[in-house]
Amino acid sequence: MRKAKRDGFTLIELLVVIAILGILAALLLTALSLGVGTARRISCANNKRQLGHALQMFVADSHICPLAAIVYPDHYTGWENILARAELDVPAHNAKPPNYPRPGIWHCPSAYLPQGFEGYADYGYNGYGLTTKTDTNSLGLGGHHIWYDYNTGVMHDPAPPIRESEVASPSEMMAMGDGFRGGNSIIQDGLSFLWRTYGVQDYLGSTKRAYARHQGKANVVFCDGHVESPKLQFLFEDTSDAALSRWNRDHQPHREKLSP
After folding, report:
1. Which range of residues forms the domain containing residue 205?
2. Which residue, among 170, 177, 181, has the nearest Cα to 220 in the 3D structure?
């Protein structure tokens, strides 16, 4: 007896084909997502490279590092505006509100902040280095003193500025990076400082946002102008000499500051 001629696929064959297509689509979407993330990280790294070049020009001209802020009786000027005014054509803020995202090289294409964060920063200055919650003296680049006391909310004068000769190892000293402040596995984002300290609180999922921005990494430019993308764990949790010394202008780990 002749078998009936089959003109189509069986249900099982169709299901197998659909499953294969689904797997291929998932792999493709994952690859595209990683590719987009990598492209954004490269764009952000290029921004850092330009900011690092501006910092180098400022230091070459003045032989000091920009102060974290210049405090006046009625206002202050942040390091971003100091650099923008001295070396860059792109201002640190948009002329009209809302001033987030910031324009040009001040904006990280992967930065995301919840609604209501207008005006916060994408990039931060290593103005303080490694500090405890009660420090008043800075190991960073923004001046010899910490200008803002987070315990009291009081602004101080960060002067005198850091001299070029006080940076012991420019190729190992972090200058600017993504605007993160963190320690003890907690990271706060949207800040104009790159800072390892303690007493930091997660704000509306800030730690998760920080890890999502560059796939668990941060872009950092060093005083000599080169850019690296270290892991956030290395920046904010690692207690090795290699991890700690990069925060401080004397290139020492200052492990005594690991206690809050």
Report:
1. 11-258
2. 177
